[in-house]
Write a structure and sequence with these properties.
By secondary structure, this protein is α+β, with helices and mostly antiparallel strands. It has one domain: 2-Layer Sandwich (RNA Cap, Translation Initiation Factor Eif4e). The chain contains 4 helices and 7 strands.
């Protein structure tokens, strides 16, 4: 059985340090591991702290090899992100949704032209909420973005993990100074 993924993926971790300026946030960005098979991905997930249990202000970033988890990266700068925000009482479902989203992005369930426009996935823990975001290229391509959002939404609906939820798209240009 071939369980090779289409790309090499890298999992990163960061924890915000309020003593450091926001321009230097990436000083705390740590590369955890890279992998190219579903088996190595599952092994990695079994060895790391689940998303719901990392401390508030921390994030996991799963990005394609050669794409850094920052909007300034040449692959992200013209892109944006689809956001899913989980509030109480849905926080207990965060790990299942995180895994579903990672598998969704890496697997063959996303059409090739959509998959190539996805650069990564970010899971962030905030006080009282967890955010899961799919990062994409070409935010100005409305049809592309709507297709990605619809396919992710359908994946979440079919999983039956959440009854009600909302996805929101935000271009990275809103984060530029």
């Amino acid at each position: 059985m071939n369980n090779n993924l289409d790309n090499i993926w890298i999992l990163w971790y960061d924890k915000i340090n309020h003593a450091i300026g926001s321009d230097d946030w990436d000083k705390f960005l740590v590369r955890i591991s890279s992998f190219g098979t579903m088996e190595s991905f599952c092994n990695l997930l079994g060895r790391i702290i689940p998303l719901s249990q990392i401390s508030a202000g921390a994030s996991y970033h799963l990005f394609r090899q050669y794409i850094e988890p920052r909007w300034e990266d040449k692959n992200n700068i013209e892109g944006g992100k689809w956001n899913l925000v989980l509030q109480k009482p849905n926080l207990i479902k965060a790990d299942r949704l995180w895994f579903l989203t990672l598998a969704f992005v890496m697997s063959g369930s996303v059409k090739k032209h959509l998959k190539s426009s996805i650069t990564g996935v970010v899971g962030t823990v905030k006080k009282g909420q967890i955010r899961i975001a799919i990062w994409t290229k070409r935010s100005k391509d409305e049809n592309l973005q709507l297709c990605i959002g619809k396919v992710w939404k359908k994946s979440i609906q079919e999983s039956m993990i959440l009854d009600k939820f909302m996805l929101e798209f935000v271009p990275h240009k809103f984060y530029k100074k």
